[in-house]
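We store amino acids, tokens; thus:
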Amino acid sequence: MRILRGLVVGALVLAATPLASVSAAYAAAPGSSPLQTADMLDAKGTYYSLFPRRVLDTRTGTGAPKAVVKPGATVRLQVGGAGGVPTTGVAAVAVNLTVVGPTSAGYLTVFPTGAARPNASSINFAKGETRANSVIVALGTDGKIDIFNAVGSTHILIDVAGYYADATPLPDGAAVGGQLHPVTPQRLIDTRTSWHSMLPAGAAARVLIDYGPEITPHIRGVVVNVTAVTPTADGYLQAWSGDWGEQPTHSTLNFRKGSVVPNQAIVGTVPCLVLICGEPVRQQIMVWTSADTHVLVDIVAIIDDGTLPDGLRFEPRTPTRIVDTRTGTGLTKALGPNTAATVSVPNASIPAQTRAIAVNAAAVAPTADTFVTLWPWSPDETGRPDVSSLNAARGTTVANAAITPIGPGTGSPSNAFNVYNATGNTHVLVDLVGTFYPGTAAPAATGAAYTLIPHPAVLQQR
């Protein structure tokens, strides 16, 4: 596995909405990507990005009865065949899970229909809060998933963002999905320092991604952590490619006035039109806000077109708690201020070829406003990246999805990653939801080596 390092280019421009679609040469039909053909690779574990679609909204009766979900109740949702997800050939889906108006603090657990409910949480929330979290979950019986509500009553929304293929053989000529390439986590946007002003309500930021001519043309998606910082009113952010000529109706994250709210998102990309962004062609995503707010975007991985070497493929797993500092699981005690700890993932929890893991991480009852960062352990003691995996206010419980490579599979420590807490003391939970293993991408093309070259017309970078 290669972790891409070096300069990642980020640019911000205001854009009115709705947005024009890209040219026909680059446009993909909703629910598909212009990827390689099936005779080159099998599709198992590869990712297919979808235009975000809402498949569950208990406020309107979409996907489930029109009613609040009671305490201890489970919603069974048909995902296979909904929102652009195929009825067959799907191992897992990437969704955005949102709670609206919960009557008490609590949590939801999302798991495959037919499987036993795991001792894990997919999202944690406070009373009255509207909060979202990214979830990757395997499909269960008949392409369904279950959503369990622990306490209190709440409305639940689910927006589907994409899916991972299973081992079902592809028909001739069908497209093969993308593979994951972890990058050195890096902040693409921080409006506090790049603009010294907020992203205004009703405007979108165009985020440009450029890893050089050998890589950029093959990027079809990014894994980013998006954070709203001190918004002036309650509202929400949307992240999407900017393609297909329409703005989605989904929300990537919801925020309250004055809060700091993160959420990880897997977002499809499209090339930015030369007319707008100039040469060379760079990939883009868009981030739109309903209220004035500062915005942070941290990139942690790219998803390719299935052709770059050293890509990783995904295998869903039953959610398993590998860290709970309250019980001494994985780490023996709460993390103090400015403290990092190393977690070794038990060998029994992951296959031998695992190179990265997908997790849901949570900070529980921090004694001060803080942020938590996850990053891979390395024998050369690679430093902590200047990004956050989740942000939590004093006394709250906040979860966020994360994807992180793990350290060597042998030696000491084994299969390891680091967890850092910035301020105060906090308990930390980490639930393992899937693993990434080496794929079978075509060998690297001959010619120039991968280079990370910034474009001279960058508006801001960090």
Remarks:
- Residues 312-438 form a domain with the Jelly Rolls fold (CATH 2.60.120).
